[in-house]
Amino acid sequence: xxxxxxxxxxxxxxxxxxxxxxxxxxxxxxxxxxxxxxxxxxxxxxxxxxxxxxxxxxxxxxxxxxxxxxxxxxxxxxxxxxxxxxxxxxxxxxxxxxxxxxxxxxxxxxxxxxxxxxxxxxxxxxxxxxxxxxxxxxxxxxxxxxxxxxxxxxxxxxxxxxxxxxxxxxxxxxxxxxxxxxxxxxxxxxxxxxxxxxxxxxxxxxxxxxxxxxxxxxxxxxxxxxxxxxxxxxxxxxxxxxxxxxxxxxxxxxxxxxxxxxxxxxxxxxxxxxxxxxxxxxxxxxxxxxxxxxxxxxxxxxxxxxxxxxxxxxxxxxxxxxxxxxxxxxxxxxxxxxxxxxxxxxxxxxxxxxxxxxxxxxxxxxxxxxxxxxxxxxxxxxxxxxxxxxxxxxxxxxxxxxxxxxxxxxxxxxxxxxxxxxxxxxxxxxxxxxxxxxxxxxxxxxxxxxxxxxxxxxxxxxxxxxxxxxxxxxxxxxxxxxxxxxxxxxxxxxxxxxxxxxxxxxxxxxxxxxxxxxxxxxxxxxxxxxxxxxxxxxxxxxxxxxxxxxxxxxxxxxxxxxxxxxxxxxxxxxxxxxxxxxxxxxxxxxxxxxxxxxxxxxxxxxxxxxxxxxxxxxxxxxxxxxxxxxxxxxxxxxxxxxxxxxxxxxxxxxxxxxxxxxxxxxxxxxxxxxxxxxxxxxxxxxxxxxxxxxxxxxxxxxxxxxxxxxxxxxxxxxxxxxxxxxxxxxxxxxxxxxxxxxxxxxxxxxxxxxxxxxxxxxxxxxxxxxxxxxxxxxxxxxxxxxxxxxxxxxxxxxxx
Length: 800
Hints:
- GO terms for molecular function: ATP binding; phosphorelay sensor kinase activity.
- Its EC number is 2.7.13.3.
- Keywords: ATP-binding, Kinase, Membrane, Nucleotide-binding, Phosphoprotein, Transferase, Transmembrane, Transmembrane helix, Two-component regulatory system.
- This is histidine kinase.
- InterPro entries: CheY-like_superfamily (IPR011006), HATPase_C_sf (IPR036890), HATPase_dom (IPR003594), His_kinase_dom (IPR005467), HisK_dim/P_dom (IPR003661), HisK_dim/P_sf (IPR036097), Sig_transdc_His_kin-like_C (IPR004358), Sig_transdc_resp-reg_receiver (IPR001789).
- By secondary structure, this protein is α+β, with helices and mostly antiparallel strands.
- It has 4 domains: 1-111 and 182-269, no CATH class; 270-386, Beta-Lactamase (2-Layer Sandwich), CATH 3.30.450; 494-661, 2-Layer Sandwich (Heat Shock Protein 90), CATH 3.30.565; 674-798, 3-Layer(aba) Sandwich (Rossmann fold).
- Helices cover 50% and strands 18% of the residues.
- The chain is built from 22 helices and 22 strands.
- The strands form 4 sheets. Strands 11, 12, 13, 14, 15, 16 and 17 form a 7-stranded mixed beta sheet that branches. A 5-stranded antiparallel beta sheet has the order 2-1-5-4-3. It has a 5-stranded antiparallel beta sheet with strand order 7-6-10-9-8.
- It is elongated and about 195 Å long.
């Protein structure tokens, strides 16, 4: 790469031995010159030809003119003699004088080898000397003018001239062949031949000069390039200069090719840290500059060095290099930063640069496909001139390093996704187990939760059994809450969503008895709020999101040892790129509920498992069940949101993302009393495969003033309704054996198309619930059933 001409770049074309004939130098350069010279020569030749031809024609015309004058003088002399003699009136003398004149003309023609045709009044031929029939026929076709004509008759050339002798009305035609002009014509031919020879000689000299001065040097240079050796032409200065520069470029290109081949080898045989170190060494050797490659931290907190290499003869000081490179200065720049002299002074604020006192510096931001800076390359050392090849070399290396960074990040993401899938499968398996257990427990708990409520209505207020029944009811409710948590983590409970405001939910919870009880357990923990006053609403389940807030605040309070703070914040945010750890995040508007504490944080190993059911560091049965964060995760997922957790030694923050809605919150309804829930004697068919569940439901409906009919299966209910009608059906979704609740409802509406129904289940399948409601069923209530929610659901459905 070094050298006096290393800053020149060129492309050496590999030429085939037989180039297309129209692309060769002979036709592209020499042939046009030859053609131009030939054209000029031909023009010159015809110019000479024309000039000499005009000269010969003038000479011939002059000769014929002299002959004409001499013959005319003969005629004129005889006519003058006759006129002077006074015998013009003597016809005999006139005839004699005319005869003498004709004789003199004929003698003149014989002496000068002329052909003469003399006619009187263009009709009567008085003299025809050496005029044959062919000549006579051609003369008859010629317009009689005083001019010279060039005639070709039977491959012989004749010169023709005509004049009139008016005193005697004679028309005289003079015809001469080329014999008198042979010397002149021979001289003209000689001049033609000489001109051709001169032109051919000049053309030959020019072709020789072009071949020697242009074609031969070019052929020598081309031959050397074909043989892949540097040309070494000596002679003409311009071709010497061209040969020298081509040799320089070939040498430089060979050197560049070797570096590129070395980079290619590194790229195909190295990975990760080995690749970065090998590339750094190549840069240091190729450009004789110290090299450092840094990578952006995953958390976006800065850059860390992944490879360094020293230039030959240099000692690189690494003490301040890690935190003393201008990475942030390069961040976002598309073109390299180049300083050829005085780098130390310009980067005085960067200890890593100053410690090594470089004069030259090249910095390149390494970007991914989206233009995000993911690393930097730093080259620094002694002052040097930076040329185009250097810049392209650095950019090539930047692309190689960037590709490796992206590949490593992709592999890391794939590993994280694999771990997420494994964790999801694990959660799904645990959820199925928990759901099955919850379904059975719900059936067991129905009697424990529902019967005490009916008994308390019938017992007098001073009964000695009231306290025991209330204790049973409270224990059943706590057990039912755990079961509901199990159902929530399986997402097996259909939830009713409506517009909610997170600010109002948090305020309601902070005023609730549950929070006051929590405060009594953690009196040194302060709960602060930071609400966005313009927070948008979300579509959500009041019960589930309230339970989520309660779980997170409880966990945050328990994480603080001694005094501390728990902060509940809300805000609006538009998501335009994936959240870290989420590859399927949807872009759009979200309301964020953030709950943070200043506790010791969560260990990294535990952070990977905090959302697993039953995973807890607390004492099981005393401080918790291990379901709290699982409930949080599944509630947020059920609301099509996302959970982002950040934790370090300074505390933990849970950010819950909920999609926004533009719907308004409806006015709160006042709670109904028992009297408000009572019916008017309507008939209700209770369909449940568990006898104890049917008895509980019938007992509660009887208490509310309804008439009840019980069916132990879907088939039995359909059969009953073939001959009877009821006002409402209380339908269990899961029945075994037999058809399930959804299929039962389909068969019932085939008999009674507008049959009203309320759905009830301990472990509802969301698809079946939605399908039944789509067909016309009303509200859904979950087991264990309370008198209040059963009475409200039935009342609302009957009043539709």
